[in-house]
């Protein structure tokens, strides 16, 4: 089994689908883990997952398989994430919330309510003290909005050593029982951005995240474990053309597609051995899911599909996404225990300017002036704000900046490689031409070939230099991870001479 549990759920045919295609469905069941679907060339493809929930599956079946392990892990300080993915109308929200978060019978009750119920049952039965906090946000047009306080409409995503990735400033409501949680969730759900497309009259156009932070402590030694559960109801993954969208709705669809393709790119990078350059920062969604997909979390993906042949292309694309995700190998580990659950503001009440000056002067003690300027510029460009609550954020920001630099260097290497290959092709063509053209043109061509050979040599040299820099950057990043913030900054920027970085635009002229 991969570290991301991947399941598929086919909802029952809708009335409209039944009217159009009768009882026909797009898959042939094999067993509880696999089925056959015809691909675009009408060829049979077998898909296998950790579990397949067919049309008659109950909400409790989905919950028991996907969510039960995540609840017990959260209590033990391991983060858990459940994501529902699929085209509009495929059953993502139904699986997550049921027909209504507040009023539905036991049979139809969704994952969220079941999870909340079990969480409180488990916590009450333990002898330790605990607290549960709820946040609810949506990512809409690449902005993170607080669904529990709509005045906060552009929250920033941050990272700290103790909390991992978190949404700074998101409202956190302490909840003490299930009904308390559901009341607040229903308020948040009412605030979700809902638009209309031809595919689903009440289609949710945003990614919705329900976040539960569980602090669970032993009364004897006051050690507290913190586990976070994130439930993600993604916006529809259908192709833009099929939505019939125009204007604002078209912009929405494009942005949704962008963040979902960023999610696809992250999964591709995680499954094709490019772990050093996983583009988590390419979208808000992937940044928030970084811990979930990158290792520090137990993750589950529910791929929701329509069973109708009319939606077969979308279902096929959802199934391929699920297959790819299954290949991710992650290893969940618990967030370090905190002895005291009150977060102490390390830098007291310093304002941002004071803090920035302090940090920059600290960096100046160990770095060259031009490196400090470069770091400051990169921080500004990346929108990295110094958080008065945590010097660890600055440390991590250095790491982020470093990894960005490495990405850019790798990109430069790839581009150079491409150019070298192009030039090589031109040279071959030129040589061939020399051999085949009339002799009177050979002189001119030889000259041209010599020029191209020179250029190729030059590019090859640049490529070698760039590859050398990228390799050193990777080594330095690894060394820096072990050696702490100051050492990290020094190693990272000190080792590359400015003259080498300048051609790639990392050092101002
Ligand atoms: N397993 C199921 N059993 C019965 N009805 C279902 C099931 N799954 C989905 N439905 C129904 O199908 C319709 C569409 O489902 P839902 O709203 O959950 O889709 P969605 O994937 O969340 O769409 P969107 O991306 O637009 O939010 C709803 O009317 C829902 O009640």
TrEMBL record:
Residue ranges of the TM segments: none
SUPFAM superfamilies in UniProt: P-loop containing nucleoside triphosphate hydrolases (SSF52540)
Keyword list, A-Z: ATP-binding, Coiled coil, Microtubule, Motor protein, Nucleotide-binding
Kinesin motor domain boundaries: 3-328
Domain of life of the source: Eukaryota
Nucleotide-binding found in the keyword field: yes
Chain sites annotated for binding ATP: 86-93
Pfam families: Kinesin
Gene Ontology terms, MF aspect: ATP binding; cytoskeletal motor activity
GO cellular component: microtubule
Coiled coil (residue ranges): 449-476
InterPro entries linked to this entry: Kinesin-like_fam, Kinesin_motor_CS, Kinesin_motor_dom, Kinesin_motor_dom_sf, P-loop_NTPase
The keyword Iron-sulfur is annotated on this UniProt entry: no
Family that this chain belongs to: Belongs to the TRAFAC class myosin-kinesin ATPase superfamily. Kinesin family. KIN-1 subfamily.
Protein name: Kinesin-like protein
């Amino acid at each position: 089994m991969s570290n991301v549990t991947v399941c598929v759920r086919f909802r029952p045919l809708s009335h409209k689908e039944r009217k159009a295609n009768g009882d026909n469905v797009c898959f042939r069941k094999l067993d509880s883990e696999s089925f056959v679907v015809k691909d675009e060339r009408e060829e049979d493809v077998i898909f296998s997952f950790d579990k397949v929930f067919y049309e008659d599956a109950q909400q409790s079946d989905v919950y028991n398989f996907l969510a039960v392990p995540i609840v017990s892990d959260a209590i033990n300080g391991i983060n858990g994430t459940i994501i529902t993915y699929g085209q509009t109308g495929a059953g993502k929200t139904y699986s997550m919330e049921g027909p209504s978060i507040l009023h539905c019978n036991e049979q139809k009750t969704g994952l969220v309510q079941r999870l909340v119920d079990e969480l409180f049952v488990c916590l009450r039965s333990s002898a330790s003290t605990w607290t549960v906090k709820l946040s609810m946000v949506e990512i809409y047009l690449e902005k993170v909005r607080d669904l529990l306080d709509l005045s906060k409409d552009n929250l920033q995503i941050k990272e700290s050593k103790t909390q991992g990735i978190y949404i700074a400033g998101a409202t956190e409501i302490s909840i003490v029982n299930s009904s308390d949680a559901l009341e607040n969730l229903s308020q948040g759900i009412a605030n979700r951005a809902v638009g209309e497309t031809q595919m689903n009259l009440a289609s949710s156009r945003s990614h919705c995240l329900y976040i539960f932070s569980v602090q669970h402590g032993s009364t004897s030694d006051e050690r507290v474990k913190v586990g976070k559960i994130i439930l993600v109801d993604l916006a529809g993954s259908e192709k833009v053309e099929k939505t019939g969208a125009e204007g604002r709705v078209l912009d929405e669809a494009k942005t949704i597609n962008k963040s979902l393709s960023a999610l696809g790119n992250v999964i591709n990078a995680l499954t094709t051995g490019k772990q050093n350059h996983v583009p988590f920062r390419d979208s808000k969604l992937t940044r928030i899911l970084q811990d979930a997909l990158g290792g520090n979390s137990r993750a589950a993906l529910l791929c929701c599909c329509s069973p109708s042949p009319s939606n077969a292309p979308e279902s096929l694309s959802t199934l391929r996404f699920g297959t790819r995700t299954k290949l991710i190998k992650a290893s969940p580990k618990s967030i370090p225990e905190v002895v005291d659950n009150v977060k102490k503001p390390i830098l007291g009440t310093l304002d941002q300017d004071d803090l920035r000056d302090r940090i920059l002067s600290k960096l100046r003690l160990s770095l060259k002036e031009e490196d400090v300027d470069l770091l400051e510029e990169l921080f500004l460009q990346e929108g990295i704000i110094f958080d008065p609550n945590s010097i660890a954020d600055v440390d991590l920001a250095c790491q982020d900046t470093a990894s960005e630099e490495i990405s850019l260097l790798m990109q430069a290497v790839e581009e150079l490689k491409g150019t070298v290959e192009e030039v090589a092709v031109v040279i071959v063509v030129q040589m061939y031409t020399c051999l085949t053209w009339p002799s009177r043109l050979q002189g001119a061509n030889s000259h041209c070939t010599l020029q191209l050979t020179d250029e190729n040599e030059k590019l090859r040299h640049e490529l070698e230099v760039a590859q050398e820099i990228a390799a050193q950057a990777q080594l330095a990043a690894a060394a820096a991870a072990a050696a702490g913030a100051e050492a990290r900054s020094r190693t990272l920027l000190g080792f590359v001479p400015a003259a080498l970085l300048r051609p790639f635009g990392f050092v101002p002229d």
